Amino acid sequence: MKLNDTELFRQAAYINGEWLTRDDMEVLNPATGLVLGHMPDCTAAETEMAIAAAEEAMKGWRALTHLQRADLLMAWHDLMLENADDLARLLTAEQGKPLAEAKGEIAYGASFVRWFAEEARRIEGHIIPSPVPGKKILAMKEPVGVCAIITPWNFPNAMITRKVAPGLAAGCTMVIKPSDFTPYSALALCVLAERAGIPKGVLNVLTGRPEEIGATLTKSQTVRKLSFTGSTRVGALLAEQCAPTLKKLSLELGGNAPFVVFDDADIDVAIDGAMASKFRNGGQTCVCANRMLVQAGIYDEFVAKLAKRVDALKVGAGEDAGIDIGPMINSAAIAKINSHVEDALAKGAKRVTAKRDLDARFADPMVLEGATTDMKLAAEETFGPVAPIFKFETEEEALEIANGTPFGLAAYFFTTDLARAFRFNDGLEFGLVGLNTGALSHAEAPFGGVKFSGLGREGAREGILEYLETKAFHMGGL
Predict the structure, then answer these.
(1) Which positions are annotated as active-site residues?
(2) What are phi and psi for residue 180, nearest 5 degrees?
(3) Is the pTM of this model over 0.85?
(4) Which of 31, 77, 131, 395 is the 20 to 30 Å CA partner of 84?
(5) How would CATH label the architecture of 13-253+453-475?
């Protein structure tokens, strides 16, 4: 990496404003397989230290006015944008996505800090008319307390800011466990938080393997909330571990997004949406289109146009110029993609894009026509650049297939029929729905799923409410 500010690259954990340096574990560059750096493998004792630091810092942090917290968050936001190039290079080195996408993620991540800095000044309670004379009832909003944040590797900057910014705005303090594949983006954010003037102990980052850290966070009675983004399996395990201490939970879990294109859709708009949704971050997103359902009347045209666009994608190391898709995060991700493709081909799907000779760390972007609901890729997240195209005849059939999953995070559909747009949206069982667009996430909009895709919402006004409790204050003798 060539960074303008080498201080942003910290091979350490961050506890109570102190940097804990220990070379316990390697972090690999997914494009090369070479060692990028090292990190400590934090223990239960160090996790307890971070929790204690957050608890102590909570006293002063919640005592600040909303405006004071907002000003500190805006200073942090401004430093993110000033250092966007370095943050993007660091992100690409540890995660693999193309540098242009990484720069987009830095701006996206910073947008949450700005949004919740502004929302900090709009935390409001209300007065309830009392049924008893001489009495008033005030509903007051207060911070939840110390929060545990566990983030994934696919968006190592933005998933932290989307969770941490509303918590800080509400007056909470944080213990953050980033993915052991991508710890450095989180640590760089802490460097900038220090410079912004955020007090020690307000943010703490624990690096290393998740089992011991996670178990300590979930059993702690001091930690009052846990926010997690990742698989449904791990989310359910964390919820079970949090049950004895009755923590407040925000869980953004797995998806199986349908992408439905009706005969009356603008095909070129739908193709643009498919490229944005399916191939962003190499298909390694929880909201990417996993099942593309295309109505019979335009099926062949859609397949041909999408295949042409996919064949034009450039695959390579994210640091290289003009790259559209970088490496997958590790060999397990490649194995899962290959398993889904082999299963689909064995069950009658046909590849309609050219085959590339790629290094084993990269997945070949492809379009498969003739996909059917008995294939693995119909039931499981592929999490890679593979677009299976299913054919349907009627709107009712499309809705049945779209909802035929235990997951309910994101769905997309394309039509120019306004009546159908409202009707189909009403029938979809998903927390996020896009009409004639492949982009669903903005700081201003609530983000989250239903069914097996999780609990709670991030972003928007709903995002800060997740970090607040309501206290009823009954005042008598008035």
Answers:
(1) 252
(2) -70, -10
(3) yes
(4) 31
(5) 3-Layer(aba) Sandwich (3.40)
